[in-house]
Amino acid sequence: MCRITDLQEELRHREHHISDLDKEVQHLHENISALTKELEFKGKEILRIRSESNQQMRLHEQDLNKRLEKELDVMTADHLREKNIMRADFNKTNELLKEINAALQVSLEEMEEKYLMRESKPEDIQMITELKAMLTERDQVIKKLIEDNKFYQLELVNRETNFNKVFNSSPTVGVINPLTKQKKKNDKSPTNRFVSVPNLSALESGGVGNGHPNRLDPIPNSPVHAIEFNSGKPLPQPVPPKEPKTFLR
Predict the structure, then answer these.
(1) How far is 47 from 143, CA to CA, in rounded Å?
(2) What percent of the chain is predicted at pLDDT more than 90?
(3) Mean pLDDT throughout 165-191?
(4) What is the pLDDT of residues 103-117, one digit of tens each?
(5) Pick from 225, 207, 103, 206: which is nearest to 160 by CA?
(6) Using an 8 Å Cβ cutoff, are 133 and 173 in contact?
(7) CA-CA distance, 248 to 237, in Å (whole number)?
(8) Could you give the CA distance from residue 126 to residue 129 in angstroms, rounded to a whole number?
(9) Which residues form a coiled coil (predicted)?
């Protein structure tokens, strides 16, 4: 009986504990339902706030895009206006530079013309006069030398012709030949360093001398012998030079 009593007591105690736990579970369920409702409400609020924030962001983005487009349009217009102003300034500057270049070109041509048509300097005129005087003096000297050369050539031809006609001599004239080869040391025969020229009288009698009889061969490269002499007529007397000359035999 005691055991039964104890068990019944324990049973009542357990039942009471179970009822308490049921109450606690019910309370927890109520809390869970309340929290679920609150969570759903919070979720809906979060979605509403997100949608509002997205809408505000879109509106702000559209506003910023419009503002940026307006600023870009203003900047483009300013750029085009400044570009046109700079182009106009460049064209004006280019035209001004062309005018300055043309003026400088005209000035350069005038300066070149003035430089070409400038008056001679006194020292240049003096130098030109001195050079002309030197040229005139040298021309006179060269002319005098040519006349003296002609005189000596005529005198030589005249004397040689008169000598051959008067004396009818046949001199053997020799000239030194520097091209003669030297003989060996063992060869004791005398070396003939002279070469005889043809007999002038024989040449005259044979009619030698450029196809004309009684005439000597002309001196090479001599302008005097280019004249056709008449063997039957004596040569004209040469004109002596203006200044006295000393002749050497």
Answers:
(1) 130
(2) 45
(3) 56
(4) 999 999 999 988 888
(5) 225
(6) no
(7) 20
(8) 5
(9) 4-38
How many Cα atoms occupy the beta-carbon half-sphere of 33 within 13 Å?
6
**114/107 Cα distance (integer angstroms):** 10
Look up residue 209 and give its amino acid.
G
- In sequence order, what DSSP letters do the residues of the chain get, joined into one string? -HHHHHHHHHHHHHHHHHHHHHHHHHHHHHHHHHHHHHHHHHHHHHHHHHHHHHHHHHHHHHHHHHHHHHHHHHHHHHHHHHHHHHHHHHHHHHHHHHHHHHHHHHHHHHHHHHHHTPPPPHHHHHHHHHHHHHHHHHHHHHHHHHHHHHHHHHHHHHHHHHHHHHH------EEE-TTPPPPPTT--SPP--EEEPPPHHHHHHHT-STT-TT-PPPPTT-SGGGS---TTSPPPPPPPPSS------
